[in-house]
Design a protein that fits this description.
The chain is mainly alpha-helical. The chain is built from 50 helices and 4 strands. A hairpin with a 3-residue loop joins strand 1 (about 445-450) and strand 2. Helix 22 runs parallel beside helix 24 (about 430-445) and helix 34 (about 620-640) packs parallel to helix 36 (about 670-680).
Length: about 1000
């Protein structure tokens, strides 16, 4: 334990990081580690960077290992840490410890999410007892911790469990909260200002955050009773804070961070917005909304707050206006033409133009410019900048019944902006930029980030505006117009891609290729984003564009994109622009086999880029897309031309070996999946390069990283399918089963992968050789059922037994499974059948119902044990459970469309989860079409009929013992269909 400080210090150095983290990981499960770590964090004699690293490590333990199955943390240590965390927060109240305190607060929140209130019943009482009447440094720490716990309620779905927790908190925390709120507001609103005004204001800001937490799901009685003290015009705290602007807290005009009063007002507007959405009746008790609207005019009307520091306040106050308009409750406030005209002139127009700091960002921080610009997908919750918030007010007017007035009033501003531009294009380009932005806003009725505009304002002709004012900028040569207008033209195309026809989109693709070669970062990045989104357009479930559409330009597109990526020097600069890599992926996925003539150059370039970024992995999205690109290129080229597989193997084995040797844990899950994909492309046998890899894949260290497990399982299943005999001969099957029994099945997280691997074993290892292990495997499965049963595990267990009885492997009949179970304990099979399998059958997901049906049919008609008393007593209820499966026959056959898009349309879904924190980064392109393990049964009903015809005569007697109302109609129907059962 004395090494903890030096290990934390070593974890900060790139050269020693890996080893130090591994040693810390091993120490973490030792008794007393967590206490030692917390003591070190609180010990001011240690270097601050070491203490902060300790705080981060503690947070990561709470995040990743608190409920670890494989190497659990000692329960006594967890209990001790829970009792010490809140006092630790208090001890870190000094402002110099703010960064360390933030890590402890997050640790509290993470542990509370799992343990509160059941295992941590005194947490709220600890927090309340820690509040101080006078020391606001302590109060800020306590309130931050409380908010980090309550904040999680905002995103949760309503449930009894959630409301039990909320009510538990409210019953203890509400009164101290209201008292502190009043005390703090009184201090701030009195004169003269207190000497500690800054820290008291911070406390007030967090108290307003907690007010939001308490009301995000429902209106607590305590807050409902105190409504007027917060919302009443003139006298309510929220209204009084709107005009509160103490000289001591005013910031420099050039400051970019919001002042404390601005932060407080922003939070209050958030609560106003929440109340309009959830509690409009409560608001209508007094003219609160009218008061808030008046505050917006007074605060931001006619551009009174032009500074960057006030951006979030201006944006949030505009969002409040948008929400009020959309709610429909305040028509009297917004319905007159004069009000709309003054809204447009006083609030929308001043905030719609590009500002100087945005132009600086455009040049100096292009990725941040793009991120903010793209954040606005038409949903008010995604507003990120002033111009987006102003545009959202306009869209609220258009979609809330004020379409005619808003379109007409804004139309005149658009016309005058275009006229101003035409009078001096070089000088007045900003006027056209604003006009295009206004047109985009007024034309949009509904849109999403993923699909662009989905419905438009009928009073605006988007295509006409595009052809008259935008197309010319899309065609303009570099340097002939301001770069922003190029970007505007591309963004217009991106936004309204669904409004243009397929032919129109095809005609502009070559122009976008040209923009990919532009010098300006934002221009070529927007071109890449637009190409990607155009190629992803769907009509119904079908993609609009196919390989034939981009065959002629695919090579140029890929060359332009990869050249831009390769142009950077440092690994983190190469990987920073994931939009380019995503577009390259989309082109590979769309062009498919048509890339075969150039696949070697493309593959080599991708491998070279991978070699650079592997030196310092820094962008999980970029990583996902480059591996997805390699996987898709492999999938399509090899499926069309199998002889190309060795070229892929030669190009990829070197980099993948490097990734595994250097233990680049972000890339290992991808490497395993693509290795599996290549091995699966070998129809027979296993090349020697793969065989030499197998011993390494079966070492315990390989299985320690959770993210690697799905790829490893996929890879081992590919080995089993091609090389099971060799694996039996070399004893490697024992190692595979050891992984299943010791690491996967005991884990609640990974048990599904354990069953997946077991399925590969029973499918491919000859039953005679499997026999010696099978009873022990069943014992492992039953032990886990006894020690830590979950609903998911019961399903997986039942599915595995049905799967093993269903597959068509010589020597692996139902009695192979049943006899192994009976050897453990006589009559155990009947218990498993009655308690687990039969109750699970109706709950089977549709994709598994055919396997369930075939497994049960074979058990009922091929097992001699099932026909022999006392097991025969279980036969009739099992027969009834099969019949019930046939009441929904559509789920017993596979759709022909299932495999058309496997892995391809999912790529867009996968990007949502790309990230190193994700337990597993799945490569959609590496997923083949699902194979039906019981494909030998074409029609389960026919299979059932035939099996009953050929069955042992005892089956006939058992048929009579079943539920007549269910059994007789089914058997009669089979007889009528020509099966001679009776």
């Amino acid at each position: 334990m004395s090494d903890i400080a030096s290990l934390l210090q070593a974890s900060l150095q790139p050269a020693s990081r890996k080893q130090a983290e591994q040693q810390l990981h091993a120490l973490a499960s030792q008794q007393g580690f967590l206490e030692h770590l917390l003591t070190l964090i609180l010990n001011g004699s240690y270097d601050r960077s070491t203490r902060l690293a300790g705080g981060i490590y503690l947070k990561n333990v709470a995040k990743l290992r608190w409920e670890e199955d494989d190497v659990p943390l000692p329960e006594a240590d967890k209990a001790a840490l829970r009792s010490q965390l809140v006092p630790a927060m208090i001890a870190l109240s000094n402002p110099t410890d703010k960064a360390i305190r933030a890590q402890i607060a997050e640790s509290v929140a993470l542990i509370a999410e799992l343990d509160f209130p059941v295992k941590w019943t005194d947490l709220i009482d600890q927090l309340i007892l820690s509040l101080s009447q006078t020391d606001y440094s302590i109060n800020v720490g306590v309130l931050q911790t409380a908010h980090s716990i309550f904040n999680q309620w905002r995103a949760q779905v309503r449930s009894d469990e959630l409301f039990t927790e909320i009510n538990f908190v409210l019953s203890r925390f509400m009164q101290p909260f209201l008292d502190l709120c009043n005390q703090t507001a009184t201090i701030l609103l009195s004169s003269p200002a207190p000497p500690n005004i800054a820290i008291v204001t911070q406390a007030q800001i967090i108290l307003v955050d907690i007010f939001y937490d308490f009301t995000c799901q429902d209106l607590p009685p305590g807050i409902e009773d105190a409504h007027d003290s917060f919302f009443a015009p003139q006298t309510g705290l929220f209204q009084r804070f709107m005009s509160w602007d103490p000289a001591e807290l005013r910031s420099d005009p050039d400051e970019t961070q919001p002042s404390l009063p601005a932060q407080l007002k922003t939070k209050i507007f958030e609560i106003g917005e929440l109340y309009i959405k959830l509690f409009p009746d409560q608001l209508s008790r007094s003219p609160a909304v009218e008061g808030f609207v008046q505050s917006v005019w007074e605060l931001i009307g006619s551009n009174k707050l032009p500074g960057v520091a006030d951006d979030s306040l201006v944006s949030q106050s505009l969002r409040f206006i948008s929400t009020a308009i959309r709610s429909g409750y305040y028509k009297s406030l917004f319905s007159s033409r004069d009000t709309i005209a003054s809204l447009v002139q006083g609030v929308i127009i001043p905030n719609i133009g590009l500002r100087d700091h945005e132009m600086e960002q455009f040049e100096d921080e292009p990725l941040e410019f793009i991120r903010l610009d793209l954040a606005f997908g038409g949903s008010a919750s995604e507003v990120a900048t002033r111009r987006q918030a102003a545009a959202d007010v306009l869209q609220a007017l258009v979609s809330s019944g004020y379409q005619t007035e808003a379109t007409e009033i804004v139309g005149s501003w658009i016309t005058s902006g275009l006229q101003e531009y035409n009078s001096n294009p070089a000088q007045n380009w900003k006027a056209k930029d604003s006009a295009i932005y206004l047109l985009t806003a007024v034309a949009t009725e509904a849109s999403t980030t993923q699909h662009g505009v989905t419905s438009t304002n009928a009073l605006v002709d988007v295509v006409k505006f595009f052809s008259e004012h935008v197309y010319q900028d899309l065609r303009a040569s570099a340097g002939s117009i301001h770069e922003i207008l190029h970007v505007d033209a591309i963004r217009f195309l991106l936004t309204f891609r669904n409004q243009l026809t397929r032919d129109q989109l095809l005609s502009v693709l070559p122009l976008l290729v040209r923009h990919l070669n532009a010098d300006h970062y934002v221009t070529y990045t927007y071109a890449a984003i637009t190409i990607d989104r155009i190629l992803f357009i769907k009509k119904g479930t079908q993609l609009l564009f196919s390989q034939a559409d981009i065959h002629d330009i695919a090579a140029d597109l890929l060359n332009a994109l990869l050249s831009k990526i390769e142009a950077a020097s440092l690994p983190e600069k190469v990987a920073e622009n994931d939009h380019l890599m995503k577009c390259a992926m989309r082109i590979i996925v769309t062009a498919r086999q048509t890339l075969t003539p150039i696949y070697q150059q493309v593959l080599q370039r991708l491998v070279n880029i991978l070699g650079v970024i592997a030196k310092n992995p820094s962008n999980p999205n970029f990583d996902q897309y480059i591996f997805e690109s390699i996987s898709a290129l492999l999938r399509f080229v090899v499926s069309g031309t199998p002889s190309t597989l060795p070229t892929f193997e030669q190009a990829l084995f070197g980099p993948f070996t490097f990734i595994l040797q250097q233990d680049i844990d972000q890339y290992i899950p991808y490497a395993f999946q693509i290795l599996a994909q290549m091995l699966e492309a070998h129809t027979t046998g296993v090349p020697s390069e793969y065989r030499t890899l197998l011993p390494f894949l079966l070492t315990p260290t390989c299985w320690q990283q959770k993210g690697s497990i799905p790829g490893l399982v996929k890879l081992l299943k590919a080995f089993l399918a091609r090389d099971a005999a060799e694996m039996v001969k070399t004893g490697q099957i024992t190692a595979v089963l050891a992984v299943v029994q010791q690491r996967l099945i005991p884990s609640k997280i990974n048990d599904g992968w354990g069953f997946e691997l077991l399925q590969g074993v029973v499918q491919h290892v000859p039953p005679a050789q499997l026999k010696q292990y099978f009873k022990a495997v069943i014992m492992t499965l039953l032990t886990r059922m006894q020690t830590s049963k979950t609903d998911k595990y019961v399903y997986l267990f039942s599915h595995f037994l049905l799967f093993t009885m269903a597959i068509n492997v010589d020597g692996l009949g139902p009695d192979y499974v049943i006899s192994a179970v009976e050897e453990i304990q006589p009559q155990l099979w009947s218990q498993i059948l009655a308690n687990f399998i039969i109750p699970q059958v109706p709950k089977m997901p549709h994709k598994d119902r055919k396997i369930a049906a075939v497994g049960l049919i074979r058990m009922l008609t091929q097992s001699t044990i099932m026909l022999t008393p006392p097991s025969a007593q279980s036969w009739p209820p099992a027969f009834v459970s099969v019949i019930k499966l046939f009441s929904e026959p559509q789920y017993l056959s596979k759709s022909k469309d299932d495999e058309q898009s496997t892995g391809i349309t999912e790529i867009d879904f996968e990007e949502q989860t790309a990230g190193y924190q994700a337990a597993y980064s799945r490569l959609a392109a590496a997923e083949g079409a699902a194979v039906d393990p019981v494909a030998y049964v074409r029609d389960p009903r026919d299979f059932f009929g035939q099996a009953l015809v050929k069955a042992d005569p005892r089956v006939k007697g058992l048929l009579a013992a079943g539920d007549e109302k269910v059994v007789q109609p089914f058997v009669q129907a089979l007889v009528v269909s020509g099966y001679a059962i009776q």
